[in-house]
Amino acid sequence: MTDKSTTDEEMHRVEAVVSGLLRIGVLLSAAIILIGLLLLLFTGASGYPGTTYPTTLTAIFTGIGEFKPYAIIMFGLFCLILTPVLRVVVSLITFLKEKDYLYVAITAIVLIILAISFLIGTTG
Q: Membrane-crossing residues (predicted)?
């Protein structure tokens, strides 16, 4: 009976960590996007000519260094997209720690699919 309660407590801790991670990720992303929007509002310029905007991580980080509003907004969106991916990584580590290999395999497949989708998205 002790093993069951220990496992339940551990699962509640993991759920709390994952929940906190998602909450922090969303709030941090929203704050970054808000900073970019405020900068856009106060400067009146996106930092890029015409209707262009940064589409690569290199361009985003370069734009952040130059305080370009669109780059800051794009970084906030990148953080928002990265938040659930981080959740999958945390789940994978948790399942490995628990030696639940069926869920390790399933979570690893999900992570691989996410990685492939990001690679396809950047080349297409």
A: 21-42, 70-89, 101-121
Cα 33 from Cα 117, distance rounded (Å): 24
- What is the pTM (predicted TM-score) of this model? 0.78
- Residue identified by tokens 């290199």 is 58
Encoded tokens for 10: 């551990």
Give the phi and the psi of residue 76 in degrees, each rounded to 5: -60, -40
Average pLDDT along the chain, 124 residues, taken 10 residues at a time: 65 81 92 95 87 87 92 94 89 87 93 90 62
Q: What would the 3-class secondary structure string for 72-94 be?
A: HHHHHHHHHHHHHHHHHHHHHHH
Residue 97 main-chain phi, psi, to 5 deg: -65, -40
